[in-house]
């Protein structure tokens, strides 16, 4: 919620400098992209926790209840397995980035912000989503009985 306010302030600043001062501030663009990424990643974990994901269930509603329960378990299982794979792949990348104190020099030598911490945001988000699938799976299995 607060990140949306911060993103708004950064974008207003960037638009103001671009239109009123006729100079685009690449740092503001860079920061807004980072903030959007964090909002998306952490927002996905929050939305899963709150059960707020939207799904198209045209066929899902027409299949028998037993098949729906099986589909729910398979669906959550796919999210869990995908999360484990992403963590196993992403954590070493984030760790290496942390160890070398990686910076983004694509904006030039003057502005080269550290990005090692940002890679951990993705890993932490996937860990949160993956951990949330465990109680969801247990609940679906309990409903199966």
Descriptive notes:
- By secondary structure, this protein is an all-alpha fold.
- It has helices at residues 2-20, 26-50, 65-99, 116-144.
- Keywords: Cell inner membrane, Cell membrane, Membrane, Transmembrane, Transmembrane helix, Transport.
- This is TRAP transporter small permease.
Task: Give a brief rundown of this model.
With 145 residues, this protein is mostly helical. It has helices spanning 2-20, 26-50, 65-99, 116-144.
How would you sum up the global shape? elongated
- The end-to-end span amounts to 38 Å
List unreliable stretches of 5+ residues. Answer: none
Number of helices: 4
Beta-strand segment tally: 0
Oligomer: single chain
The ordered H/E elements are HHHH
Q: How is the main sheet built?
A: none
> Can you tell me the number of structural domains?
2
Report Rg: 20 Å
Mean pLDDT comes to 85
Subcellular location: Cell inner membrane
GO cellular component, one term: plasma membrane
Main location: membrane
Keywords: Cell inner membrane, Cell membrane, Membrane, Transmembrane, Transmembrane helix, Transport
């Amino acid at each position: 919620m607060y990140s949306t306010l911060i993103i708004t302030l950064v974008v207003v600043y960037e638009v103001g400098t671009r239109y009123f001062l006729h100079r685009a501030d690449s740092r503001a663009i860079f920061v807004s992209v980072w903030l959007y990424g964090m909002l998306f990643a952490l927002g996905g974990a929050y939305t899963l926790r709150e059960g707020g994901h939207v799904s198209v269930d045209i066929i899902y509603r027409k299949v028998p209840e037993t098949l729906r329960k099986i589909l729910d378990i398979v669906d959550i299982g796919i999210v869990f397995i995908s999360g484990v794979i992403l963590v196993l792949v992403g954590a070493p990348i984030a760790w290496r980035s942390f160890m070398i104190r990686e910076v983004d020099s694509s904006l030039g030598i003057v502005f080269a912000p550290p990005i090692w911490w940002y890679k951990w945001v993705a890993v932490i988000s996937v860990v949160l989503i993956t951990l949330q699938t465990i109680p969801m799976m247990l609940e679906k299995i309990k409903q199966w009985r």
